[in-house]
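REQUEST ID: PR-0412
SUBMITTED BY: lab tech R.K.
PRIORITY: routine
TASK: structure prediction, single protein chain
INPUT:
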Amino acid sequence: MWTVTESPVGPLRVVEHAGAITAIEFSPFRDVDPDGRPRGSRDDAHPVLVEAVRQLGEYFDRARRDFDLPLQPAGTEWQRAVWAQLLKVGYGDTASYGEIAARLGKSNAASRAVGVANGANPIPIVIPCHRVIGANGTLTGYAGGVDRKQTLLELEQDALF
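STATUS: complete
OUTPUT:
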């Protein structure tokens, strides 16, 4: 099941499967999952999707800093480990790819692998991959586009002051 909600970074499609959020997609939307499975039907009244839309709305209204949703991102063991670390980067904070690698017990050489896993995050915003930046503080690539990354970071910074 899926639904679409409006946001400051454009329309977002929120996807649910078996009672958990499995994806949040930026527009333009794909017609199938990355593994080729169809998305299923739209259901704007599904309780998990309703709650996800509510929490996303609160986040964009600067009234929510942490999400409390059932998440089931599909990925490799390495990707899931990186995504678990992303959840520890607090609202309004940032971390470099190298810092995430270090938190996983890896050397700075693993920064690129962290970046690849970061880019494969199927649940952006809720799993805050936008909070990962270059070692020199620059905004590096973002699956949703650097403009969206900047908007999300600015939203969080504005809410802190």
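NOTES: Strands lie at 2-5, 12-17, 20-26, 95-96, 132-133.
REVIEWED BY: pending
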